[in-house]
Specification:
- By secondary structure, this protein is an alpha/beta fold.
- It has one domain: Alpha/Beta hydrolase fold, catalytic domain (Rossmann fold, 3-Layer(aba) Sandwich), CATH 3.40.50.
- The chain contains 9 helices and 10 strands.
- It has an 8-stranded mixed β-sheet with strand order 1-4-6-5-7-8-9-10, with helices on both faces. It has a two-stranded antiparallel ribbon with strand order 2-3.
- Helix 7 packs parallel to helix 8.
- The longest helix has 19 residues.
């Protein structure tokens, strides 16, 4: 909503004062300074996406001690890579994934490798949905997740010191990315053992409820569902409904979180603020 205000306000002021909204001599805005920390880099050039006839840029975060430790690390795969690490590339602010994980590493609480998969711009609504939608078009989510599972993950496991098993592999995203992450956990239980399902857009994929109901995930899988109270009645109702579906599959309450935050809205600042606690819960050592 704040980005919408930033777009509309200059136009309203221009109209009020009789100035042209798009003046020909208006200086170009200076590019934003990068806010990414040293552990963040582009992972080579764009990678071919089999079955989708397009390419996609990947972004990589390595923990501070990676170069000298010799250790292997859990991996978190995240959607909307442009929004994760750098305000210069983010749509409406960044998640501050690198700042959060650098802090956790410094506290000795958690060290992760993070792989960000850039979104496809105008393809985002179809790429992150495994089901067709009358409004947005034919779902491409199955091919998109196949790309992560069959192309991206094997490449990361070859090139970096990962812990490649499902217990140390997670996936996370917000909105359409939350929907895609829940789909990934259910469709690929042998690959992903944890999912961060932030502000999931279940409203775009009504078949997702029956899909989750029909395919119980392993009992040790962890699913963290997050919603802001002010994200709207439909989204709040849907996430509560999905939590009930998960419960009815017999999934243990200890491995399921539904967190609805009073006053929170649908934006990166909300997700950034919840990231730390979500990751600590998702990657907490198994007590069994």
């Amino acid at each position: 909503m704040s980005s919408l205000r930033r777009t509309i306000l200059p136009l309203l002021l221009a109209a009020a004062f009789g100035a042209p909204a798009m003046a020909a001599d208006k200086p170009a805005e200076a590019p934003k300074a990068s806010t990414a920390l040293p552990g963040v880099s582009l992972l080579g050039g764009p990678v071919e996406m089999p079955g989708l006839e397009r390419e996609r840029q990947l972004r990589l975060y390595l923990p501070p001690g990676y170069a000298t430790s010799g250790k292997r690390y859990p991996v978190l795969y995240m959607h909307d890579g442009q929004n994760l690490f750098d305000d210069a590339t983010a749509y409406a602010g960044e998640w501050k994934v690198d700042e959060t994980l650098d802090a956790l590493a410094g506290e000795g609480k958690l060290e992760l490798i993070v792989v960000g998969i850039d979104n496809g711009g105008d393809k985002r609504m179809t790429e992150l949905n495994a089901w067709d939608n009358d409004r947005f078009g034919k779902g491409e989510g199955r091919a998109y997740l196949e790309f992560i599972v069959r192309t991206v993950k094997p490449m990361i496991d070859r090139q970096y010191r990962t812990l490649p098993d499902r217990a140390h592999t997670a996936i996370m995203g917000s909105s359409m990315g939350g929907l895609a992450s829940h789909y990934a956990l259910v469709q690929y239980p042998e690959v992903f053992g944890k999912a961060g399902v932030f502000s999931p857009a279940y409203w775009t994929a009504q078949p997702s409820f029956a899909f989750v109901a029909s395919k119980p995930v392993p009992k040790d899988a962890r699913v963290f569902m997050l919603m802001g109270e002010k994200e709207g009645p439909q989204m709040n109702a849907d996430v509560k409904r999905m939590a009930e579906v998960v419960k009815k599959t017999g999934h243990p309450a200890a491995n399921t979180v539904l967190r609805i935050v009073p006053g929170a809205e649908h934006n990166e600042a909300f997700w950034a603020g919840e990231l730390r606690e979500a990751l600590l819960w998702m990657f907490a050592p198994d007590k069994t």
